C-alpha cells in the first residue's frame, strides 16, 4: 500500500509513525514545504544547549501522550517544571496569577480581587443573582462577550485574555467557550439541562467542584512536561521510527485523484492509495478544492494567529524573579510583549546550563498587518523584549550579558478556535466521510496542544488504515 502524507509537522510525522506500526511493508512518502521537519516544533541548537523556539511544553496530565512518548523510548527524557508560580502584569505592577477558577474566570471575586476594581468585585459577587444566561445546550458562545457581560471588561482584559492568549495567541474576544474551555461549556449545559439557573459563577463553581481532589499525602504530578533535549527529540524520533521517505522543500500545490489513486502536484510521479493532509487549515482548504469542495469551503473560514518569539540567553540570572514567567494584561499600555517565559526558572534542566534563558513572545490574532509587531525588524523585537523585561521585572538584560539571541516568527502559527470553529470541523468531517482513502488532521482539528494533535493524527492514521 502506498501512503502520501502532506506536512512533516507533529501531525504528519505522528500519522506516518502510526501507519508504519500497523503496516511494516507500507510505502510512506511525506511531503514537506519547508527545509526542515517539525513544523511548529522547532529546537534551535543554542551553544548553551538545545532550545525550543516553538512549542516548549506539553500537558503531562494527558496520560495518552506520556504513554506515547514512553513507547517511543523517550520516557527517560521527559522533564518536569520547577513549579515556580507565574505572574500577571497589570496596572504597571506584577501580581500573582489568580488561583482556582477556570482559565482565569473565577466563581467568586476573591481570586481576582487583587487585579480588578472594587466595582468589578461587586459585580462578580452579584452575578449569581443577575438574570440567567440565555445558554443553548450544545452550542457555543464567544468567551470575551460572555465574561464581559457577566463580570465586566477588567476580568477579560486583565486575566482571561492573558491566560488564553498564552495558549491560542488570541484574546478572549476571538475564542469560543466550548472550543477552548469545553469543561465550562459542559457545566453551562448541565445547569440548563437540570433546569437550574444558568450563571457564569455557578458554572465555574461546578467545574471547580468536579476536579478530583488529590489523596492526602499523594505525590502531586506535574501538570506540564518537556523533553530534556527539546522537541527535536520527539520529531526526529518520529521521523526515524516511521521509516518514511521524507521529501523536504516539497511544496504541494494541488492534489488530484483518478482510478490509479491520488496524485500530488509538487510530489513524485507515483499514484498513492491513501492520503493524509496534515497541513494548517487554509492550506488544507486549498488542497481539498478538487477532492472535497464542501470541506474545502468550510475550512476556508478558519483563520490563523501569528506570533513572534525572541529567545535570549544571559550570562547572569541575578535579579530575574523566581517565577516561571509573566503574562501581560491585554489592556496594558506601553508594553509590546505579550508574555515572558523565564525558561531557566521554569525548567530545572535549563537552569543547569547556568545564566538565564528567557523567551519573550509578541503578537495576538490580527496583529500581523504590515506595521505589526510580528513583522518588526529583529533588532527592534530584541530591544522591545529587553526594555519590557526591565520595566516589568527590573532585570537589566543588557547588563546581565546577552550571549545568544534567536528570533523566530510564526506567521499563521495557531488556528483561531472561535465560537464557530467546532461547527466548521464537524462540517469538514461530515463532508470527508464520503471520500474514501483521504483523511485530514492537524492543530485545527481537535485542539492545538501537543497531546491533542498526536491523538487526532493517530486516529486519522487508524481511519486511513481501515
Ligand atoms: C509559538 C507556539 C508555541 C506553542 N507552544 C505550545 C506548547 O508549549 N505546548 C503545546 O502543547 N502546544 C504548543 N503549541 C501548539 C503546537 O506546537 C502545534 O499545535 C503543533 O505543533 C501543530 O502541529 P501540526 O502538525 O498540526 O502543524 P504544523 O506544525 O504547522 O505542521 C504542518 C506542516 O505542513 C507543512 N506544509 C504547509 N503547507 C504545505 C504544503 N503546501 N506542502 C507541503 N507541506 C506543507 C508546514 O511547513 C509544516 O511543517 C505552540 C504553537 C506555537 C506556534
TrEMBL record:
Q: What is its EC number?
A: 1.3.3.15
Q: Name the cofactor(s) required for activity, per the record.
A: FAD
The subcellular location is: Cytoplasm
Q: Which reaction does it catalyse?
A: coproporphyrinogen III + 3 O2 = coproporphyrin III + 3 H2O2
Top-level EC class as recorded in UniProt: oxidoreductase
This chain's function reads: Involved in coproporphyrin-dependent heme b biosynthesis. Catalyzes the oxidation of coproporphyrinogen III to coproporphyrin III.
This protein's name: Coproporphyrinogen III oxidase
Provenance organism: Corynebacterium halotolerans YIM 70093 = DSM 44683
